[in-house]
Amino acid sequence: MLLAHGAGAPMDSPFMEHLSEALERHGVATVRFEFPYMARRREDGRKRPPDRMPVLLDSFRAEVARVRDEVGEDCLILVGGKSMGGRVASMLASDNAPDISGVICYGYPFHPPGKPDRWRIDHFSTVGCPMMIIQGTRDPFGKPEEVAAQGEMPGLSRLRWLDGGNHDFQTPARHPGSQATLIEQAASETGRFIQELLAGSELH
Questions:
Q1: Which residues cross the membrane (predicted)?
Q2: Distance separating alpha carbons of residues 171 and 57, to the nearest angstrom
Q3: Which of 71, 121, 135, 143 has the most crowded Cβ, counting Cβ within 10 A?
Q4: Domain 2-199 coded CATH 1.10.760.10
């Protein structure tokens, strides 16, 4: 799985490191990369806003092609990412991308925080492969009641909620779980999703 970072943190942020390690434990090999604006930030230390969507998509598309060349035609390739990275992955999968077999988004930015009138789901119905979103129940980018109010979302195969998690899957101090346990749950859900995809099961 090609795993893309969010808007403000690089591919080796603590969240991305822990998620990649958890996915590996569940049998999911990951490849991380950085979008051009983040690569430039790594070079000179200057923070920049994300590139525009066409640039993000071209960058992601090039990484998929590179990985396909390395692993050959028999390997299943999925795309996913944290927040913005997951959104770009889902848009790439809606753009006639035959090399992509599945999409997994961790903390999907359904809408900007505090702006539940600006939903980012119009492209879901054109995603051409199974897609899963794993979301914390306290995520300001899309909470359970807000998402439920949108009704059925064509193109979204599975939605899993992590109890108590915020946008980074962190939990309140008195919550019985922790960020680490929620990341582990997310990785477990990912592994199950991929196994069912490989088995040709109907995803729900």
A1: none
A2: 32
A3: 135
A4: no
pLDDT at 202 over 70: no
Q: With pLDDT > 90 as the criterion, what percentage of the chain qualifies? A: 92
Residue 204 has pLDDT above 50, yes or no: no
Query: Contact at 8 Å (CB) between 51 and 35?
Result: yes
Element containing residue 162 per DSSP (H, E): strand 158-162
CB atoms within 10 A of CB 166: 18
Q: pTM of the full predicted structure?
A: 0.95
The CA–CA distances, whole Å, from 10 to 65, 126, 191, 197 equal 21, 28, 24, 29
* 203 pLDDT tier (thresholds 50, 70, 90): low
Residue-wise burial string across 95-129, b where 16 or more C-beta atoms lie within 10 A, e elsewhere: eebeebbbbbbbbbbbbeeeebeebbbeebeebeb
Q: How many CB atoms neighbour CB 67 within 10 A?
A: 17
Question: Which of 38, 5, 33, 8 has the alpha carbon at shortest distance from 19?
Answer: 5
